[in-house]
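Reviewers of the previous submission asked for a worked example of the structure-prediction workflow described in the proposal, so we include one complete record here. The input consisted solely of the amino acid sequence. No template or homolog information was supplied to the procedure at any stage.
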Amino acid sequence: MTKTAWVFPGQGSQSVGMGLDLLETDIAQKLLERAEAILGWSVPEICKSEEDKVSSTLYTQPCLYVVESILADLLKEKGAFPDFVAGHSLGEYVALYTAGVFDFDAGLTLVKRRSELMSQASEGMMAALMGFKRPELDEMLETTEGVVLANDNSPGQVVISGTPAGVQTVLDTLKAKRKVALNVSGAFHSPLMADAAVEYQPILDSVPFQDAQVPVLSNVDPAPM
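From that input alone, the workflow returned the following C-alpha coordinates.
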Protein backbone atom coordinates (compact mmCIF):
# COMPACT_ATOMS: atom_id res chain seq x y z
CA MET A 1 0.00 0.00 0.00
CA THR A 2 1.34 3.41 -0.97
CA LYS A 3 2.01 5.79 1.91
CA THR A 4 2.07 9.57 1.69
CA ALA A 5 4.60 11.88 3.32
CA TRP A 6 4.22 15.64 3.57
CA VAL A 7 7.64 17.32 3.57
CA PHE A 8 7.75 21.03 4.38
CA PRO A 9 10.59 23.18 2.98
CA GLY A 10 12.70 25.55 5.01
CA GLN A 11 14.41 28.87 4.54
CA GLY A 12 15.63 29.46 1.01
CA SER A 13 12.37 28.23 -0.56
CA GLN A 14 10.58 31.57 -0.08
CA SER A 15 9.60 33.78 -3.00
CA VAL A 16 7.91 37.13 -3.48
CA GLY A 17 4.16 36.62 -3.81
CA MET A 18 4.01 33.23 -2.12
CA GLY A 19 0.67 32.40 -0.55
CA LEU A 20 -1.20 35.34 -2.06
CA ASP A 21 -3.42 32.97 -4.07
CA LEU A 22 -4.70 31.53 -0.79
CA LEU A 23 -5.95 34.76 0.78
CA GLU A 24 -9.64 34.27 -0.02
CA THR A 25 -9.92 30.93 1.75
CA ASP A 26 -11.52 30.83 5.19
CA ILE A 27 -8.58 28.92 6.64
CA ALA A 28 -6.08 31.51 5.39
CA GLN A 29 -8.10 34.41 6.73
CA LYS A 30 -8.36 32.80 10.15
CA LEU A 31 -4.67 31.91 10.44
CA LEU A 32 -3.47 35.22 8.98
CA GLU A 33 -5.52 37.13 11.53
CA ARG A 34 -3.98 35.11 14.36
CA ALA A 35 -0.53 35.50 12.83
CA GLU A 36 -0.78 39.28 12.69
CA ALA A 37 -1.80 39.38 16.35
CA ILE A 38 1.30 37.38 17.31
CA LEU A 39 3.80 38.96 14.92
CA GLY A 40 2.60 42.56 14.91
CA TRP A 41 2.85 42.72 11.11
CA SER A 42 1.00 41.39 8.07
CA VAL A 43 2.30 38.23 6.38
CA PRO A 44 0.64 39.07 3.00
CA GLU A 45 2.15 42.56 3.02
CA ILE A 46 5.64 41.13 3.53
CA CYS A 47 5.12 38.38 0.95
CA LYS A 48 4.07 40.81 -1.76
CA SER A 49 6.75 43.43 -1.04
CA GLU A 50 8.77 44.12 -4.18
CA GLU A 51 11.73 44.90 -1.91
CA ASP A 52 11.98 41.14 -1.25
CA LYS A 53 11.48 41.61 2.48
CA VAL A 54 10.38 37.99 2.59
CA SER A 55 14.02 36.94 2.13
CA SER A 56 15.09 38.65 5.35
CA THR A 57 15.36 36.00 8.10
CA LEU A 58 13.24 38.08 10.47
CA TYR A 59 10.33 37.73 8.04
CA THR A 60 11.20 34.58 6.08
CA GLN A 61 10.69 32.07 8.85
CA PRO A 62 7.29 33.32 10.13
CA CYS A 63 6.02 33.74 6.56
CA LEU A 64 7.01 30.21 5.59
CA TYR A 65 5.48 28.78 8.76
CA VAL A 66 2.18 30.58 8.17
CA VAL A 67 1.89 29.84 4.44
CA GLU A 68 2.85 26.18 4.83
CA SER A 69 0.44 25.77 7.77
CA ILE A 70 -2.36 27.20 5.63
CA LEU A 71 -1.55 24.73 2.85
CA ALA A 72 -1.51 21.81 5.29
CA ASP A 73 -4.87 22.80 6.77
CA LEU A 74 -6.38 23.26 3.30
CA LEU A 75 -5.28 19.76 2.33
CA LYS A 76 -6.85 18.36 5.50
CA GLU A 77 -10.05 20.27 4.76
CA LYS A 78 -10.18 18.49 1.40
CA GLY A 79 -9.81 15.10 3.08
CA ALA A 80 -6.10 14.53 2.48
CA PHE A 81 -3.98 13.31 5.38
CA PRO A 82 -0.32 12.24 5.54
CA ASP A 83 1.06 8.96 6.82
CA PHE A 84 4.30 10.73 7.76
CA VAL A 85 5.43 14.34 8.06
CA ALA A 86 8.88 15.90 7.92
CA GLY A 87 10.42 19.29 7.36
CA HIS A 88 13.72 20.80 6.39
CA SER A 89 14.92 23.01 9.24
CA LEU A 90 12.18 25.65 9.70
CA GLY A 91 9.79 23.31 7.89
CA GLU A 92 9.99 20.90 10.81
CA TYR A 93 7.92 23.36 12.86
CA VAL A 94 5.11 23.03 10.31
CA ALA A 95 5.50 19.26 10.41
CA LEU A 96 5.10 19.32 14.20
CA TYR A 97 2.05 21.60 13.92
CA THR A 98 0.53 19.32 11.29
CA ALA A 99 1.12 16.31 13.55
CA GLY A 100 -0.62 18.02 16.48
CA VAL A 101 2.50 18.39 18.64
CA PHE A 102 1.58 22.03 19.32
CA ASP A 103 -1.09 24.42 18.07
CA PHE A 104 -0.64 27.10 15.42
CA ASP A 105 -0.16 29.94 17.91
CA ALA A 106 2.47 28.11 19.95
CA GLY A 107 4.40 27.14 16.83
CA LEU A 108 4.37 30.67 15.47
CA THR A 109 5.48 32.06 18.82
CA LEU A 110 8.49 29.74 18.69
CA VAL A 111 9.23 30.62 15.07
CA LYS A 112 8.97 34.35 15.78
CA ARG A 113 11.61 34.17 18.50
CA ARG A 114 13.76 31.81 16.42
CA SER A 115 13.74 34.25 13.50
CA GLU A 116 14.63 37.19 15.75
CA LEU A 117 17.64 35.41 17.21
CA MET A 118 18.86 33.95 13.93
CA SER A 119 18.54 37.29 12.14
CA GLN A 120 20.91 38.78 14.70
CA ALA A 121 23.49 36.07 13.93
CA SER A 122 23.84 37.09 10.31
CA GLU A 123 27.59 36.93 9.65
CA GLY A 124 27.78 33.77 7.60
CA MET A 125 26.59 31.90 4.54
CA MET A 126 25.42 28.50 3.33
CA ALA A 127 25.77 26.60 0.06
CA ALA A 128 24.36 23.44 -1.49
CA LEU A 129 26.73 20.98 -3.15
CA MET A 130 25.67 18.33 -5.67
CA GLY A 131 27.61 15.67 -7.54
CA PHE A 132 30.92 15.55 -5.67
CA LYS A 133 33.30 12.96 -4.24
CA ARG A 134 32.50 12.61 -0.56
CA PRO A 135 36.06 11.80 0.59
CA GLU A 136 37.28 15.01 -1.04
CA LEU A 137 34.58 17.05 0.70
CA ASP A 138 35.24 15.42 4.07
CA GLU A 139 38.95 16.16 3.82
CA MET A 140 38.29 19.75 2.79
CA LEU A 141 35.93 20.32 5.71
CA GLU A 142 38.53 18.94 8.11
CA THR A 143 41.24 21.26 6.83
CA THR A 144 39.23 24.43 6.15
CA GLU A 145 38.55 26.74 9.07
CA GLY A 146 35.08 28.15 9.61
CA VAL A 147 32.94 25.73 7.60
CA VAL A 148 30.99 22.60 8.57
CA LEU A 149 28.61 20.06 7.08
CA ALA A 150 25.18 21.45 7.96
CA ASN A 151 22.67 19.22 6.14
CA ASP A 152 23.61 15.71 5.03
CA ASN A 153 20.63 15.24 2.72
CA SER A 154 21.86 12.35 0.55
CA PRO A 155 25.11 10.83 -0.72
CA GLY A 156 25.05 13.27 -3.62
CA GLN A 157 23.60 16.43 -2.06
CA VAL A 158 24.67 18.28 1.08
CA VAL A 159 24.65 21.79 2.50
CA ILE A 160 27.67 23.45 4.08
CA SER A 161 27.57 26.39 6.46
CA GLY A 162 29.98 28.77 8.13
CA THR A 163 31.89 31.98 7.68
CA PRO A 164 31.80 33.56 4.20
CA ALA A 165 35.53 32.92 3.84
CA GLY A 166 35.26 29.27 4.85
CA VAL A 167 32.27 28.48 2.65
CA GLN A 168 33.75 30.33 -0.32
CA THR A 169 36.98 28.37 -0.01
CA VAL A 170 35.06 25.12 -0.43
CA LEU A 171 33.04 26.54 -3.33
CA ASP A 172 36.20 27.67 -5.09
CA THR A 173 38.14 24.46 -4.52
CA LEU A 174 35.82 21.44 -4.47
CA LYS A 175 35.02 19.75 -7.77
CA ALA A 176 31.25 19.31 -7.99
CA LYS A 177 28.59 19.17 -10.69
CA ARG A 178 26.71 22.01 -9.06
CA LYS A 179 27.46 24.49 -6.29
CA VAL A 180 24.77 26.96 -5.19
CA ALA A 181 25.00 29.69 -2.55
CA LEU A 182 21.70 29.62 -0.65
CA ASN A 183 19.38 32.59 -0.28
CA VAL A 184 19.76 32.82 3.50
CA SER A 185 21.23 35.51 5.69
CA GLY A 186 23.32 33.49 8.12
CA ALA A 187 25.37 30.37 8.81
CA PHE A 188 22.46 28.27 10.02
CA HIS A 189 23.04 24.78 11.42
CA SER A 190 26.61 25.68 12.33
CA PRO A 191 28.52 26.57 15.51
CA LEU A 192 27.88 30.24 14.68
CA MET A 193 24.31 29.67 15.94
CA ALA A 194 25.46 28.56 19.42
CA ASP A 195 24.66 31.84 21.19
CA ALA A 196 21.25 32.03 19.53
CA ALA A 197 20.49 28.47 20.66
CA VAL A 198 21.22 29.36 24.28
CA GLU A 199 18.90 32.37 24.15
CA TYR A 200 16.21 30.32 22.42
CA GLN A 201 16.07 27.56 25.04
CA PRO A 202 13.83 29.36 27.60
CA ILE A 203 10.94 29.94 25.18
CA LEU A 204 11.33 26.42 23.81
CA ASP A 205 11.04 25.05 27.34
CA SER A 206 7.89 27.12 27.94
CA VAL A 207 5.84 25.44 25.18
CA PRO A 208 4.18 22.11 26.03
CA PHE A 209 4.65 19.41 23.39
CA GLN A 210 1.95 16.78 22.85
CA ASP A 211 2.36 13.30 21.42
CA ALA A 212 2.42 13.38 17.62
CA GLN A 213 -0.79 12.17 15.97
CA VAL A 214 1.18 11.40 12.78
CA PRO A 215 4.73 9.98 12.73
CA VAL A 216 7.29 12.79 12.43
CA LEU A 217 10.62 12.10 10.72
CA SER A 218 13.14 14.28 12.53
CA ASN A 219 16.02 16.25 11.02
CA VAL A 220 18.30 14.56 13.56
CA ASP A 221 17.08 10.95 13.65
CA PRO A 222 15.04 9.48 10.78
CA ALA A 223 13.24 7.06 13.10
CA PRO A 224 9.56 8.18 13.38
CA MET A 225 8.71 10.10 16.54
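The first strand starts at residue 5 and ends at 8. We consider this example representative of the routine output the project will generate in years two and three.
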